[in-house]
Specification:
By secondary structure, this protein is α/β, with parallel strands linked by helices. The chain has helices at residues 10-30, 43-51, 54-57, 75-78, 81-91, 114-119, 130-139, 156-168, 183-191, 205-211, 217-221, 234-250, 269-278, 309-312, 328-341, 344-348, 380-386, 392-400, and strands at residues 35-42, 65-73, 96-100, 123-126, 144-151, 174-180, 200-204, 227-230, 255-257, 279-281, 286-287, 291-292, 298-300. The chain is 41% helix and 16% strand. Bound molecules: iron/sulfur cluster. The site of iron/sulfur cluster has 14 residues, from α16. This is Hydrogenase formation protein HypD.
Length: 401
């Protein structure tokens, strides 16, 4: 099969669901549980689940059901508000052009988002790659051009290559506000949480395409859980779920690769090489819902500090937050109240469903998001909402149906 349509064929999806049903029968016959809890770590997989309605297709057997637990693998969702504020503060400096991917513009900070900074006069531009930002820097030598770098290992190589290119082309007015995150420390933090009872994982194929498979070995070696690296088409994801269930039925815990047409065992040598050259662990980067996780975030190595926006504009603690206007003081107070009620962290860790948050659908929607999980199409709250679950009541009705 070569084309995406081949991986969306109804007969293929049906055959995979039938195969999953048979494996569920084997697990059910052991009679030890009512649910199998499988986490799809990546927001891209969450998006596939909802876009194609796959959860509704997953078969039950003798009272045993599959619960897909939506994980934190959405870089927009795990970015803490303080980093958005820092980014806005950089954007508001004189003679700065702030370049960002589109979905990052609406991530809420405590003092608004990057679109609010733009409304206050910041030059904020949407780009499709960090190289676009480098081009803008080359064309505007009198201004400082900052790229708002986000993402797991999927986007880390492109930022690293751009930093290397900026050095090679000697473009001193380019820098990176680095918020890249590593998958395996985040996954480890989930596995170390004793309140999360997960039976297995579907892991992101595009991350493994860069890193290779070995970064996941600790999941089976230390935590004895099955993990299958999977692609993003409906049949990929169903096959990944099938492979996880087959390991559970067989009492196994291995790292397997469903996405063999893209993921090779050792990953991308050029990508890993560029990442090793450019990045080191970030000393203070936190993740929303997790707090500080050892070595989860990265920053630029000292050799590249001329391209590090945090160094160029001051250390993160000393970057001034944008001062709220008088009119926004009341909005700020209201936001603080809402944030006390929001449950983004628990949704990110898969502890509750989005509809378990009291703000869902009424005080937090994709049009007026309180949490970042309502912003990105890969965020589970936005995925629920866009699937048609517009309120907590809708969810209860669906459960009763
Ligand atoms: S509904 Fe909004 S506030 Fe609640 S968990 Fe989702 S994104 Fe966070």
């Amino acid at each position: 099969m070569k084309y995406s349509d081949d991986f969306r064929k109804p007969e293929l999806v049906k055959n995979l669901c039938d195969a999953i049903g048979k494996i569920m029968g084997r697990i059910a016959s052991a009679g030890t549980r009512e649910k199998v809890r499988v986490m799809e770590f990546c927001g891209g997989h969450t998006h596939t689940l909802f876009k194609y309605g796959l959860e509704e297709l997953l078969p039950k057997h003798s009272g045993l059901s599959i619960q897909m637990v939506h994980g934190p693998g959405c870089p927009v969702c795990v970015l803490p508000m303080s980093r958005v504020d820092q980014c806005a503060a950089i954007a508001l400096q004189p003679d700065v052009i702030l370049c960002s991917f589109g979905d990052a513009l609406r991530i809420p900070g405590m003092h608004g988002n990057l679109l609010d900074a733009k409304a206050r006069g910041a030059d904020v531009r949407t780009v499709y790659s960090p190289l676009d930002a480098l081009t803008i820097a080359r064309k505007n030598p009198e201004q400082q051009v900052v790229f708002f770098a986000l993402g797991f290992e999927t986007t880390m190589p492109s930022t690293a290559f751009t930093v290397l290119e900026a050095e090679k082309q000697n473009i001193p007015n380019f820098s990176v506000f680095c918020n890249h995150i590593l998958t395996s420390p985040t996954l480890r933090a989930l596995l170390q949480d004793p309140t999360l009872e997960l039976d297995g994982f579907v892991a992101p194929g595009h991350v493994a395409m860069v890193t290779g498979l070995d970064i996941f070995n600790f999941v089976s070696d230390e935590f004895h859980k099955p993990l299958v690296v999977s692609g993003f088409e409906p049949s990929d994801l169903l096959q990944g779920i099938y492979m996880v269930l087959l390991q559970i039925a067989n009492g196994e815990a291995k790292i397997e690769n469903q996405y063999t047409r893209v993921v090779k065992g050792n990953g991308s040598a050029p990508g890993l090489d560029a990442m090793t050259k450019v990045y080191m662990p970030h000393p203070i980067l936190e993740l929303r819902g997790f707090g500080q996780i050892g070595n989860a975030g990265v920053c630029l190595r000292p050799e590249y500090e001329n391209f590090d926006a945090e160094k160029k504009f001051g250390h993160s603690e000393s970057i001034l937050k944008p001062q709220p206007t008088a009119q926004s003081q009341e909005a700020f107070r209201q936001l603080e109240e809402l944030l006390q009620k929001s449950r983004c962290g628990e949704v990110l860790k898969g502890k509750i469903e989005p509809t378990g948050c009291p703000l869902y659908g009424e005080l937090c929607t994709p049009h007026a998001p309180v949490g970042a999980l309502m912003v990105s199409s890969e965020g589970s709250c936005a995925a629920y909402y866009n699937r048609g679950i517009r309120s907590r009541k809708d969810s209860l009705l669906a459960a009763d149906a």
